[in-house]
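Justification of resources, computational component.

The compute hours requested in this renewal are based largely on the per-chain cost of generating structure records like the one below. Each record pairs the submitted sequence with a full C-alpha cell output. That output is archived, and it is also reused by downstream analysis tasks.
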Amino acid sequence: MKKIVLSFATIAMLFTSCNDDQNVINTNEQSKIDMSDFYVYTDADLDEAEKVANNSKLKSCYSMVNLNRMLNEDPSLEKKLYDIEYHTRSQINAKKPNGNGNGNGNSGGGNDGGTDPVTDNLGIINIPVNIHVVYSNAQQNVSDNQINAQIAVLNDDFRASNNDINQVPNEFAGLVADSEINFTLANTFRHSNSTSAWSTNDAVKDAYPPVSPSTHLNIWICNISGGILGYAQFPGGPSATDGVVVLYSSLPGGSAAPYNEGRTLTHEVGHYLNLRHIWGDGRCNRDDFVTDTPTSDAANYGCPSYPTVNCRTTDMTMNYMDYVDDSCMYMFSEGQKLRMRSIFESGGARESMLN
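The structure output for this chain reads:
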C-alpha cells in the first residue's frame, strides 16, 4: 500500500511539474503580446463636430463615430474588442519567425509582417454578399449594373488588380498587398421606403435586418443624412446590426463625385474586416496597429502630392483607409492584409464566414 501511495505521489508531482512548465510557457507567450497601445474610443466625434462648425462640405466615413456610440450604449463591447485585438496580434505573432510581430505600431513593433509575407493556410477567402437597396425614389434605387460594378471594384481593390496600382510610389510599391479576399454577390433585396434619408444610428438596419450575418457580408445602399459617405460595424458588434451602410450615389457611376468610383465601400469593408484609419483617428501618438502604414496626424483629402509628410514620415495617402478622392486611393498594405485575414482564423471574430 505504501508503494502505491508513493507512486501516486510521484505521478502527482509529475503533473504539477508539467502544469508549472505549461504556465511558464503560457506566461512567456502572453508576454510577447503587447497591448499597451490598444485603444477603442477616438477623437472622431470631435473631428466631425469641427467639420459641422466650419460648414465643411467634405464627406467622410462615420465608422469611428458609430463605434464610439456603440461603446457608450454597450460597455461590454470594449472587452470584446480587446479580446479580438489580442487574438489578432496573437495569430500574427505566431507566424513571425522572431515572435516580435505584435502590436504597438508607433514604436516599431507592429502587428503586421512588414516586408516579410507569411501564410495562414486559409487560401482564397470568398465572402458572399447580401445587398439591401433601400430607396424612396428611382434615383436611390440603384441598378443591378451598378451593384455588379461595385462588386467588381471590391474584388479589384482587395486583390490588387485595379488599373491604378502602378501609380504607387517606389517607397510603398513593395508593400502593396493582394489580400486574397474575394466577394460574390449572393442576394439583392430591394425595399421601397418613404424615408428620404437615413441617419447613422442603424435605423436602416433595424427596418431591414441583416440576412445570415454570421456567414454573409450585409451591405445597405441608401441615402444617408448629414453628408456621410458610409459607415461600418467593426468585428465584435451585435449580429443584428452587423454590416456596412453606404451612400447610394457613391457606387460606380453615381453622382457623389469625386467619391463615385466605388471606393467608399472598399474603405468601409476595410473597417468591417478590422482595419482602422491610417492616422489612427488621433494625432501622431495614435496608431492604426499596422507598422507598414506610416504614422500620420490626420486624414488626407483630394489628391495629395507625393510626398506628403506628417509626423516625420511620408503619408501613405493612396491607402484605401485614408479619405482621399476615389481616383487617388489604390492599395492595401501587407500589414493590413495580415490584420484582415487574422479574423478568419481559428477563434477569430469572423471565422464562421469560412464555413
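Confidence is low (pLDDT under 50) at residues 1-28, 100-115. Residues 266 and 320 are 7 Å apart (CA to CA).
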